[in-house]
Amino acid sequence: MANETTRVQIVTNPIRISFPYLFEKRKMKDQDGTRQPERDRFECVLLIPPSTGDAEKIEAAIGEAMAAKFGDGWESELSAMEMAKLPLKKCETNKWFKDFTGWHFVNSWSKERPNVVTKDFEDIIDADKVYAGCWCRFQLTLLAWESKKGGKLCLVSLDNVMFIADDDRLGGGKPTAKDSFGGFGEVKMPAELKAAGDTDEGADVF
């Protein structure tokens, strides 16, 4: 049946994360900007370095799921548009990731909030802890299915996330307060502030 899916589950090695929406759903819109709240979802982009073997692992999982759903030789049955929609892509083909030569990326998402934990399996509740550029491991489910219009598709469901290590933020990102205020040397206090602090009224301000 068209709505049946075939599922293959994998766990990655440490790879980098980008565009994370792990704690609040991304608010989705149509191309004309109209809000589509029923499409809101948790999501992120996985940036996969060539050394981990995860690109090959995901490619094999896609093949396994698609073959189980559509049979051997499924690739020859896909249209050019369907092939282009397969989830594993080269970073050089995307304007946001073109500097990651030799890397791959995958878009993953879920309607349900993924579990996000530390290496010690403690829940992470601070959204700032998992930012674009840090390293994480991911549990993913590859879903092969046929749309109502007959299209053969494979999606990547985001199940669980484990934070592994910090790294440079991608796209600049929001600096920490320590980075913002810690590198400017001695602070010159205004005379007016000292004068205000000598009065009872000034003390109430602080």
Describe it.
With 206 residues, the protein is α+β, with helices and mostly antiparallel strands. It has one domain: OB fold (Dihydrolipoamide Acetyltransferase, E2P). It is 21% helix and 32% strand. It is built from 6 helices and 8 strands; from the N terminus they run βββαααβββββααα. Strands 1, 2, 3, 4, 5, 6, 7 and 8 form an 8-stranded mixed beta sheet that branches. The protein is elongated, with a radius of gyration of 23 Å. It starts with a strand and ends with a helix. The C terminus is likely disordered.
- Cα shape: elongated
What's the number of structural domains?
Answer: 1
Strand content: 25-35%
List how many beta strands DSSP finds. 8
Q: How much is the average pLDDT?
A: 88
Order of helices and strands: EEEHHHEEEEEHHH
Question: Any key phrases for this structure?
Answer:
elongated, 206 residues, disordered C terminus, OB fold (Dihydrolipoamide Acetyltransferase, E2P), single chain, alpha+beta
